[in-house]
Amino acid sequence: MLKATVFKQKEDKERLLSRAYIERTKGKDVQKWLSSDLIKVILGPRRTGKSVFALMLLRGQDFAYFNFDDESLPGEEKIDLDELLSELKQVYGETKYILFDEIQNLPNWELFVNRLHRAGYNLVLTGSNASLLSKELATHLTGRHIPIEILPFDFKEILKAKQYKVSADKLLLPEEKAKLQGYVTQYLINGGYPEVVTKDVDPRGYLDVLFDAVLFKDVIKRHKVRFSKQIDNLGSYLINNVSNQYTARKMANALAFKSDVTVAKYLSYLIEAYLIFSLDYHSTKTSLRVRLPKKTYVVDNGLVTAKAIQHSPNNGKLMENLVFMELVKRGNQPNRELFYYKTRNDREIDFVLKEGYRVTQLIQVTYDSTSPEVEEREVKALVEAGKELNVGKLLVITWNEKREVVKEGVTIQFVPLWEWLTA
Fold first, then answer.
1. In this structure, are strands 358-365 and 348-355 parallel, antiparallel, or unpaired?
2. Range of the domain at 192
3. Hey, which bits of 197-347 come out as E strands?
4. What is the gyration radius of the CA atoms in the chain, in angstroms?
């Protein structure tokens, strides 16, 4: 059985390597780690191109490949790992490079990986579970791995896929500006999953099915969740309340859960599966960060469009979610370098960016910035928060408006979304 699977997967590998792909933003930064003996761990949601990224990283090297998410396998716990290594050697020779896809499907995978690492193999792993990054990797591979997150396309990757190059001269032409704005609108509504961007697929149907598949495979099945309808309801609730504040207790009451502890546990499963992100309140006091409501975001706007029950488009919420995910894709780790904030007068700041102990920037996101009331609200919040947090870099990301506002001696930049996305 294993012999046939290894041969079949070798054909899959060669077929995938023969194709042309969109170069990912992180590709150049990661290439320098290839020759290192550190274990390269590529993490992210399903269907975002982790396997392709790993293959492109190893292109030009002789390497073995095995995918633990293959449905033809008899059950991962029944795999004889010595037999697997033997079959890989027979098919690929004595190569020291091995790519293991969806390694989290192998029980006690870390023991197997450590064994190979000690034997001198150069390993690249992919996984669709964030706990590999936070718990299992930290526990078992401390100091011996480099984590790399691959998320749905960022906007620059989308423009590469569309073969569109932004230039100042081009954007002087109204038709070119409209074309770029059209790509931003598509990104806002359909998101950045590679197959949605590059193929003629119905984004809502594709992403609806993908969400349900991830929920079943990476949440319900992995964690042996008995009440699958409850966790499905929780996922739907969070998607329908994207960018809103929440507490486990309020969600437990709204969804008729018996315990807010169960809500918190189920929420952690959704976060592990890269469906949901949770954002903490910014404070130097740990007790406040833990106690105050958090905000919820979704890994891709396309999932919101596909799964949310909407009577009319909520472009403001979608735009805030898009900016959050772009900040994450640029390397800002939620609850470490990225937070939200409320001033003493209860004015909310969408995003607080930190470097080490220092707050470096405050960002507001607004779809409608032409209204005087909206401008006053956003500017007041930024000026007030800037004084409280001692930060002078204040930004409002708008849909299509660029200007500068000076208030109480403080300068606030208004920048269109398309410009911020392409900066």
1. antiparallel
2. 152-314
3. 245-246, 276-279, 294-298, 338-342
4. 23
Instruction: State the total domains in the chain.
Output: 3
pTM of the predicted model over 0.85 = yes
Residues 65 and 206 in one domain: no
In a domain, 266, yes or no: yes
Long-range contact pairs involving 8-12 (C-beta distance under 8 Å, separation at least 24)? 8/72, 9/65, 9/66, 9/67, 9/70, 10/65, 10/91, 10/92, 12/65, 12/67
| Residue given tokens 């470097």 in the structure block | 355
283 and 159 in a common domain: yes
Burial of 79 (0-12, 13-18, 19+ CB in 10 A): buried
Cα separation, 174 vs 310, in Å, equals 32
Q: Three-state secondary structure along 17-69?
A: HCCCCCCCCCHHHHHCCCCCCCEEEEECCCCCCHHHHHHHHHCCCCEEEEECC
Do residues 142 and 250 both lie within one domain?
Answer: no
The residue count of the chain comes to 423
Tens digits of pLDDT across the chain (423 residues): 799 999 999 999 999 999 999 999 999 888 889 999 999 999 999 999 999 999 999 999 999 999 999 988 876 567 899 999 999 999 999 999 999 999 988 988 988 999 999 999 999 999 998 877 666 677 777 778 998 999 999 999 999 999 999 999 999 999 999 999 999 999 999 999 999 999 989 999 999 999 999 999 999 999 999 999 999 999 999 999 999 999 999 999 999 999 999 999 999 999 999 999 999 999 999 888 889 999 999 999 999 999 998 766 799 999 999 999 999 999 999 999 999 999 999 999 999 999 999 999 999 999 987 888 988 999 999 999 999 999 999 999 999 999 999 999 999 999 999 999 999
Which region holds residue 390: left if phi is over 0, alpha if psi is between -120 and 50, else beta?
A: left
Same domain, 103 and 238: no
